[in-house]
Structures are given as C-alpha cells and as structure tokens.
C-alpha cells in the first residue's frame, strides 16, 4: 500500500469522513 497515488486517495479520504459526520448530524 505504498503507492505514489496515495495523494489521490488522501483527498477523498477526508471527504468521506466529513460525509459520515454530516450523516450522523454530529457536526451539522
């Protein structure tokens, strides 16, 4: 899992995290 394309996965990673928190209505 040491691919140089990790940057592309790091961007959507936090995006999904925010979506999960918004779905929980914890941060909203």
Walk me through this protein's architecture:
With 28 residues, the chain is an all-alpha fold. Helices cover 64% and strands 0% of the residues. It has two helices and no strands. The longest helix is centred in the middle third of the chain and has 13 residues. It is rod-shaped and about 35 Å long.
Give the biggest beta sheet. Answer: none
* Low-pLDDT segments, ≥5 res: none
- Helix/strand structural class: mainly alpha
The average pLDDT value, as a whole number, equals 60
Backbone CA Rg: 12 Å
The total of helices stands at: 2
DSSP helix fraction = 55-70%
- Fraction of residues in β-strands: under 5%
SS elements, strand count: 0
How are the SSEs placed, and which strands pair?
Elements: H1 6-10, H2 12-24
In short:
With 28 residues, the chain is mostly helical. The protein has helices spanning 6-10, 12-24.
Which descriptors apply to this entry?
28 residues, mainly alpha
């Amino acid at each position: 899992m040491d691919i140089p394309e990790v940057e592309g996965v790091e961007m959507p990673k936090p995006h999904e995290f925010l979506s999960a928190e918004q779905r929980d209505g914890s941060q909203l």
